[in-house]
Amino acid sequence: MKLRPYVIVGCIALFVILISRCTGRKEGTADPRGNTFAAATSCADCHKAVYDSYATTAHAKSSAIASAATVKGYFDAPDNVFHFAGQTDVVMEKEGDDLFQIMKTGGTPQAKYPFDIVFGSGRKAQTFLYWKNDQYFQLPISWFVPANGWANSPGFPAGHPKFDRIVPATCFGCHSSMVSVKEEVSGLKITDKFARREMIAGIDCQRCHGPAADHVDFHKANPAEKTARFIARMDTLSRIQRLDACALCHSGLKPMVRPAFEFKPGNRLEDFIIATVPFPQKPSQLDVHGNQMQLLAASKCFLQSQTMNCSTCHNPHVTERTSMQTFSQRCMNCHQPETPQFCKHTGQPSAILQQNCIDCHMPSLPSGSITMLTNGQQSPTPDSVRTHLIDVYEVMKGKLH
Ligand code: HEC
Ligand code: HEC
Ligand code: HEC
Ligand code: HEC
Ligand code: HEC
Ligand code: HEC
Ligand code: HEC
To answer: Is the overall model pTM greater than 0.85, yes or no?
Structure first.
């Protein structure tokens, strides 16, 4: 029998798939990041409560493979259209399980781009990537929660849809747990090359706690041992080390000398970033987006207490946002009522002040860098982010002094 070309191609493809399945990871045990990492789901075996509550957090959902389940936003007319000036629209459409942004002029489709990757848990916004020729590009239309609608992506031109903004690996370094990158140097330019839809989505346990294969193996073999082994003990880290572990992603965009993925608890942030670039000097000039570390570090609370770090107020395994009572309780660990350390404001009774320290001393302020243009608007709407410069503010009117 004579084999036709497509049969041969088919056989080769099947062979390649089988080989990659066999030589890849050990089923169920290993992790694509290498054998120092335990399988991401293995933590659930012994830390079920932490694991389950963590799964609902913004960190866990900070990126995803695009699907109807992970992409927020409307795909049905008339809410699935973003109008640009003139005749150009971008229309969000669903075809089976696949989602697309389709550029149309006068209703006629011109070009069609798939949703491949989602960035953002959807607390405030989601932005989307499509993959082409080993590269990721940001799609022009994002989902903007405050407007409950589609919006032109931040920093994109207002007049027409832009489909050629390249997304570098650094975005994944803050929003995911792994993306396989091949770096290609062409001339002086370094381009990141990716395989389509291949990533460990979300920020997982081992991004903050470090590779944990030895920890899992040890505790599986020694179930009676109740003291953690082969894992960084958070309570033995210094204040700076604890802060650096969060500041890796919460001190804004900075040129990196090592990939953020390699950071482990105990490492120093200054070994990862280019130290010659100073952080902006004045806290009031810092954008509220992304700069939590610098803003906090400029606050009196931080400067005049020996211990304050992100965990003083945040439990990273639990979703606590919007619970102003919970956070105010944490302020009152240091600013106890009926003491000279308590609020000096005389305009309201103590019991009322105790309900919500946050909106007065850490108001949500508009970001200058993250703004979104929604349908029919002339100027973009800023995203509002909770400032970490703890101070005395006149609510909604910016700073008092
Ligand atoms: C076979 C059981 C087992 C598995 C699986 C396991 N752990 Fe643990 N882990 C323990 C025990 C026991 C302790 C010590 C008691 C405690 O703190 O809960 C511990 C403690 C910890 C601690 C606390 C360290 C400290 O500050 O004291 C962290 C962090 C941790 N594990 C992370 C992980 C991560 C991440 C995974 C998944 C990759 C994981 N563990 C999987 C058994 C396990
Ligand atoms: C690997 C990068 C990374 C690290 C490390 C990291 N974060 Fe985040 N964090 C993010 C990203 C990205 C978001 C935005 C998630 C989203 O909504 O899509 C976020 C969001 C948050 C939020 C808002 C969550 C909410 O529900 O409103 C808090 C609070 C936070 N981080 C605190 C921390 C603290 C505390 C640490 C250190 C213990 C930390 N982060 C470490 C990347 C990181
Ligand atoms: C954003 C960073 C971050 C992520 C992601 C994260 N943790 Fe933690 N974890 C911390 C910090 C910080 C502490 C120390 C908390 C403290 O001292 O108040 C901690 C403490 C712990 C502890 C010991 C204390 C406790 O609360 O039980 C365990 C166990 C633990 N983490 C397991 C996990 C597991 C399992 C996951 C994934 C499901 C995970 N962590 C994800 C930052 C993180
Ligand atoms: C240095 C770390 C870092 C890098 C790099 C980074 N982000 Fe973020 N991103 C964050 C943090 C932290 C937040 C949430 C806190 C904030 O807004 O201040 C966030 C928030 C977001 C959100 C809003 C999520 C929500 O639901 O509120 C989107 C969307 C997003 N980032 C997309 C991107 C894209 C696209 C890139 C690459 C062009 C990128 N980010 C690069 C750290 C980073
Ligand atoms: C770890 C202890 C600690 C925690 C927690 C804490 N603070 Fe403070 N705070 C201090 C110290 C110390 C000072 C400086 C001495 C003072 O003014 O009382 C301070 C100062 C302040 C100031 C004066 C700022 C200025 O520039 O004049 C305000 C306002 C304030 N804190 C509000 C808060 C709020 C709101 C919270 C909760 C979101 C909080 N603090 C949490 C310790 C803390
Ligand atoms: C003194 C208490 C306190 C400390 C310390 C603190 N935060 Fe927060 N943080 C808050 C409060 C309160 C909110 C508002 C929660 C809400 O709006 O529901 C918040 C919100 C956030 C958000 C979400 C902002 C937004 O509007 O999207 C991020 C991200 C965050 N914190 C990161 C950090 C990081 C990283 C650190 C350490 C550098 C830190 N925080 C230290 C009190 C604190
Ligand atoms: C309605 C808004 C409001 C609320 C709620 C509020 N504060 Fe204040 N706070 C102020 C104002 C305004 C001042 C400045 C008062 C003055 O100097 O006359 C102030 C002053 C302070 C100071 C002293 C600042 C200094 O200059 O030394 C601290 C500390 C403080 N507040 C902490 C808190 C804490 C903790 C809570 C929650 C328990 C809280 N505040 C709730 C508005 C508020």
So the answer is: yes
